[in-house]
Amino acid sequence: MKFEGSYVALITPFKANGEVDEDKIRELVNYHIENGTAGIVPCGTTGEAPTLTFAEHEKVIKIVVEEVKGRIQVIAGAGSNNTDRAVELTKYAKELGADAALSTCPYYNKPSQRGIYEHYKKIAEEAKFPVMLYNVPGRTGVNIEAETVARLAEFPEIVAIKEATGSIEQMIRIQDLCGDK
């Protein structure tokens, strides 16, 4: 799987009554396609995924995949602090036809590096779908260390990382340890 170009972390628009605004989502998707966006990422941090109900989360991914119709890539947000839920969301993204899943490490719980490894290992082994790690310690409370990323890169399902620590040193270390994986 190759990721090139600009990918947009899509917001989740709501109607005044608090319901997900399906029409606005479709409008946003088409706006980005018409303006040359290479891929869309629904239900990530920008899409307020942790605040969505399970039904809302699944609805947003479904709407986006349906509207994209294979014209650009969809990397569906599938992160959760519950490993089984992350597996479920990743499988759902696969079933709908997304291209990959974006998955944060468990947040709030502050797992150890072993816990992070086991979390992603289970997702990779059970979902059998391309997963992009999402390292955003400012939101999750824990950093996925470069050595853990390198171990996870051994799984063919772990295809990329969205590295949001802001640490050049960490990015260099990941590149050194992972090379072209």
- Total beta-strand segments: 6
Shape field: globular
CATH class: Alpha Beta
> Helical segment tally?
7
Helix/sheet category: alpha/beta
Report on the architecture of this protein.
The chain is of the alpha/beta class. The chain is 44% helix and 15% strand. It has one domain (7-178): Aldolase class I (TIM Barrel). It has helices at 22-34, 54-68, 83-96, 113-127, 137-140, 146-152, 168-178; strands at residues 7-9, 39-41, 73-77, 100-104, 131-135, 158-163. A 6-stranded parallel β-sheet has the order 1-2-3-4-5-6, with helices on one face. Strand 1, helix 1 (22-34) and strand 2 form a beta-alpha-beta unit. Helix 1 packs parallel to helix 2, helix 4 (113-127) packs parallel to helix 6 (146-152) and helix 6 (146-152) runs parallel beside helix 7. The relative contact order is 0.12. The mean pLDDT is 96.
Question: Layout of helices and strands, plus pairs?
Answer:
Layout: E1 7-9, H1 22-34, E2 39-41, H2 54-68, E3 73-77, H3 83-96, E4 100-104, H4 113-127, E5 131-135, H5 137-140, H6 146-152, E6 158-163, H7 168-178
Parallel strand pairs: 1-2, 2-3, 3-4, 4-5, 5-6
Helix pairs in contact: 1-2, 2-3, 3-4, 4-6, 6-7
